[in-house]
Amino acid sequence: MPSPVASASPMPTVSGDVGSKAVITLPPGQPSGQFVVSTVSEGEGATVNRGDWVTVNYTAKNWTTGKDVPSSYDAGSKPQLYQAGIGQLVPAFDQSVVGHKVGSRMLVVAPPAAAFGDQGNTQLGVGKGDTVVFVLDILEDVPQDSVVTGTVTPPPANLPQVKENGKAAPTITIPQGVPAPTDLQTSVLIKGDGKPVKSGQTVLVQYTGVLYSNGQQFDSSWNHGGAQALQIGTGSVIEGWDKGLVGQSVGSQVLLVVPPALGYKDQAQNGIPANSTLVFVIDILEAV
Fold it and tell me: Between the CA atoms of 59, 65, 66 and 67, what dihedral angle is there, to the nearest 10 degrees?
């Protein structure tokens, strides 16, 4: 994987305020072939570490052709949510934000090896071997071990109870002698003050799931390295999540009791018998 370097060659210039689409002006001549990252303006937020989930807005221009590349600021587009420094995206995104602060604007000159390689990206108008200039605005940083904090409202007595365990899976206790509900039950344990989750967004969550029948844990994000990104409201997750999370505020912790009809129905899953009622505690960390 290429590493960014300082450049003595003429660099593109950037105008416009952080938080709005940048204007990229290219210098005369062709790019040097170096992978260059420079700071246009340094933010004052948290520093992005390798493995953190970052939310980034971007503007881009094809240096080889001089044409604009589609931007997250364009109508119908949205910021990019990804884990920094682990190779999820091209190096121009993957490496450039690590070590920089939320609120920063970064200028990135990405030769093919740091952008779209020898194959290019026809959908974005990037040809084979083109150099791309990106301007990245770092909007948010969420470490993998992040949890929701705030005033806790205990769930009703007839629902499972939740004991927080810091940066670890919560303990979920099933009420004794209470039959499993046949409808989706939702209880907001911590009310966040962020934007509401919309259908079609990608949500970043910590979650733990147990069986209502015996309280046995069958899954937890803590067993997968921490926070996970999932698309909501589109059928990518079980229907109980789609129904229970759309409309909730970012920063909330939500208890869901999901009947089989909104879960896995009569299909057994790993650690989940057929026709199981499922209980989840979900921290909503971000939504884009």
Answer: -50
- Looking at the fold, whether 35 and 69 belong to one and the same domain comes out as yes
3-state helix, strand, coil in the chain (%, to 5): 10, 35, 55
* Residue found under tokens 């904090």: 149
pTM: 0.92
* Residues of the chain below pLDDT 70: 1, 3, 5-8
Domain residues for the domain of 239 are: 161-287
Distance CA 189, CA 151 (A): 8
Longest dimension (CA), the chain: 76
Tell me the C-alpha distance between 236 and 156, whole Å.
29
Give one word for 62, left, alpha or beta, with left for phi > 0 and alpha for psi -120 to 50.
Answer: beta
Q: Is 89:96 a contact under the CB 8 Å cutoff?
A: no
- Write the CATH number for 280: 3.10.50.40
Please enumerate in sequence order all residues whose Cβ is within 8 A of that of 76, keeping only pairs 6 or more positions apart, or say none.
Answer: none
* Confidence at residue 140, expressed as pLDDT on a 0 to 100 scale: 97
* β-strands 217-220, 202-211 pairing: antiparallel
- Cβ distance 61 to 69 under 8 Å? yes
| Cα 66 off chain centre by | 31
Q: Could you tell me if 70 and 186 lie in one domain?
A: no
Residue type present at position 178: V
Tell whether 138 is covered by a domain: yes
Per residue in 249-288, pLDDT (tens digit) is 999 999 999 999 999 999 999 899 999 999 999 999 999 9
* Cα(56)–Cα(38) distance, integer angstroms: 16
Find the helix or strand (DSSP H, E) in which 183 lies.
none
Euclidean distance between CA atoms 275 and 243, whole angstroms: 19
Beta carbons of 135 and 21 less than 8 angstroms apart: no
